[in-house]
């Protein structure tokens, strides 16, 4: 991908050399003689050549990017190729190339000094790994071009097209979680059945506490009263995940990234085992997904790729506002980095109300964790589970 040229003049001049040239001219003018004039003419020729050299190089220098892989996952090593081309009649001796877009990427060359021959090319092969999810635009590349004598420096900037999409990594975690969580294991094996939200059994009058998403708006308008849907039940179970993406997570980017990796890994485990999963995410957008197939999983992955933790609502309040959609004795997985007193009290209250609660956390607040265990709430430090990756680097980014 060839960059678009962006003109931004940033020129630097070696004033000492120019002053020296001027002094030599004055000396030759007043003193005369072949030697002073020869020195002056030589210095003047150097100045003219150097000025022509840097602008000729600036005009004829360009960079091409070869992005063979446009989708990757966290910490996967991929190859990025660049080709710097010089269509000049002189060798390009001293060019400093700066790639600002790779400042947060492991293995990338932030600065690289180049030497190119006449009409030469330089192929740059970089093995890089992205530490954080997101969309990385190739963006701006800057060249600092110097003449062979160090008199002039000019800058050229190119705005490069192309981008790399970095997704959360997927890990093998289900067997370990199923071993540690008696609640989840027992709940999955039970025969309660799951409501299929694509199959409406009948409708009934709205009752306080009903999920607003169950309201049958068309029928309600026809009969001038609120009516809700009853869904058919199918074999299996439904689990419920609450994920804390409060903006406080951004205080530690590595912890935030680890939490999202774990969340996606757990969802992937449910998907592979055909376990239906209702997902509520405490973000600014207040996002919800109902994981029943690969399409929804891909939508969830896109959301996490494009969204950093930005939620404003306290996590315990978020859970309390959403809990009415979880059936009595349902299994709830709570994923969070920190466990404060308010969240601790909220989880204890859920347990007292008959819910099966498993807390997946990073926080090492042993006091709160110990209290939760004392009330019969399962607590699992998820960072200890995130180890072995899904094979073939997440099967070439989720195309399982």
UniProtKB/TrEMBL annotation:
Pfam families: DUF58. Keywords: Membrane, Transmembrane, Transmembrane helix. Residues 202-248 form the DUF58 domain. This is DUF58 domain-containing protein. It comes from the Bacteria. The lineage of its organism: Bacteria, Bacillati, Bacillota, Clostridia, Eubacteriales. The keyword Transmembrane applies. InterPro entries: DUF58. The keyword Plastid does not apply. It comes from Oceanirhabdus seepicola. The chain crosses the membrane at residues 12-31, 37-55.
């Amino acid at each position: 991908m060839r960059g678009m040229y962006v003109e931004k003049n940033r020129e630097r001049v070696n004033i000492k050399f120019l002053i020296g040239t001027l002094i030599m001219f004055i000396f030759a003018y007043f003193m005369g003689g072949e030697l002073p004039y020869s020195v002056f003419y030589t210095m003047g020729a150097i100045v003219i050549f150097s000025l022509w050299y840097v602008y000729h190089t600036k005009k004829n220098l360009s960079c091409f990017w070869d992005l063979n892989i446009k989708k990757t996952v966290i910490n996967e090593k991929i190859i990025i190729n660049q080709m710097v081309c010089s269509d000049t009649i002189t060798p390009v001796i001293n060019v400093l190339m700066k790639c600002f877009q790779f400042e947060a990427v492991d293995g990338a060359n932030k600065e690289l000094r180049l030497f190119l021959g006449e009409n030469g090319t330089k192929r740059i092969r970089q093995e890089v790994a992205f530490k954080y999810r997101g969309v990385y635009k190739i963006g701006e590349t800057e060249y600092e071009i110097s003449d062979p004598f160090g008199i002039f420096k000019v800058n050229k900037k190119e705005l490069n097209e192309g981008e790399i999409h970095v997704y959360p990594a997927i890990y093998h975690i289900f067997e370990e979680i199923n071993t540690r969580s008696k609640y989840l294991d027992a709940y999955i094996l039970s025969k309660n059945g799951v409501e299929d939200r694509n199959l409406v059994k009948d409708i009934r009058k709205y009752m306080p506490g009903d999920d607003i998403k169950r309201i049958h708006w068309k029928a309600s308008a026809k009969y001038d009263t609120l009516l809700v849907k009853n869904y058919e039940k199918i074999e299996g179970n439904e689990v419920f995940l609450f994920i804390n993406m409060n903006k406080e997570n951004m205080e530690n980017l590595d912890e935030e990234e680890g939490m999202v990796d774990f969340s996606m890994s757990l969802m992937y485990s449910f998907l592979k085992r055909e376990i239906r999963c209702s997902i509520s995410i405490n973000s600014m957008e207040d996002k919800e997904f109902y994981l029943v197939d690969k399409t929804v999983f891909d939508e969830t992955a896109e959301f996490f790729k494009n969204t950093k933790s930005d939620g404003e609502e306290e996590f315990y309040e978020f859970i309390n506002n959403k809990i009415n959609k979880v059936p009595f004795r349902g299994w709830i997985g709570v994923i969070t980095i920190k466990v404060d007193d308010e969240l601790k009290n909220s989880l204890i209250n859920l347990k007292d109300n008959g819910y099966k609660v498993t807390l997946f956390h990073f926080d090492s607040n042993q006091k709160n964790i110990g209290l939760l265990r004392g009330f019969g709430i399962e607590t699992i430090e998820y960072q200890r589970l995130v180890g072995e990756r899904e094979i073939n680097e997440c099967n070439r980014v989720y195309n399982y």
